[in-house]
Amino acid sequence: MNIFRFCGDMSHLFSIIVLLLRLRVAKNAQGISVKTHELYLLVFLTRYLDLFTTFYSAYNSVMKLVYIAATASIVYTIKFQEPIKSTYEKGQDSFLHWQFAAIPCAVLAFITHLIGSGIADFNFMELLWTFSIYLECLTIMPQLVVLQRYREVENLTGNYVFFMGAYRALYILNWIYRANTEKNYRHHWVVYICGTIQTLLYADFFYYYLKSKAKGGKFSLPTSASK
């Protein structure tokens, strides 16, 4: 544990709390992608299977359970709970997340894990962990597509996406810190590459978010033609 990882975890947790607050207060799901959270739920379920096999710390176990439960709650609320369900615009949330995210990541994870370990040392838990790393890289894509279509971003929604992106950026600092302070730190290049790509996907959003905060005006994304 270090300050960067702790702040990253808290930023992630805060983003979830902001989104749940947004759904409960506004009573609508406009501008929210349920597909992003379906992908996140799949990421957590495949990555945190070690809850049943290995105990690291109470903090670690509690955070994993909170991420799973809170993300499942978001998906359930948007898809099944009225009046929020009626406000969810499925037509805007049209990114084909299973076809263009989950399935390609599963295939890539299988190929890279098989090449790396071979048939003799094939480990299903490791395969699912690798899959979760690849998939998390793309989880925000459906949400960014929805925001681009709405263009004008509601304040709490913008805060939620910002803190989600900050979580990834802080984890990059966490990796750098650990690599320079832990003698036997194990480098995971797949994690580094996927984490960096995921953070870069937020770059455009960060720019316009911080620009709107500096000016104190409404947060809106430009059209493709105006960029």
UniProtKB/TrEMBL annotation:
Domain of life: Eukaryota
GO molecular function annotation: ER retention sequence binding
Topological relation to the membrane, as annotated: Multi-pass membrane protein
Residue stretches spanning the membrane: 55-76, 96-115, 127-147, 159-177, 189-210
GO biological processes: protein retention in ER lumen; protein transport; vesicle-mediated transport
Entry keyword annotation includes Disulfide bond: no
Keyword Transmembrane helix: yes
Keywords (A to Z) from UniProt: Endoplasmic reticulum, ER-Golgi transport, Membrane, Protein transport, Receptor, Transmembrane, Transmembrane helix, Transport
Matches recorded under Pfam families: ER_lumen_recept
GO CC terms: endoplasmic reticulum membrane
Subcellular location field: Endoplasmic reticulum membrane
PROSITE patterns named among the record's database cross-references: ER_LUMEN_RECEPTOR_1
Entries under PANTHER family matching the protein: ER LUMEN PROTEIN RETAINING RECEPTOR
Family: Belongs to the ERD2 family.
Record's protein name: KDEL receptor A
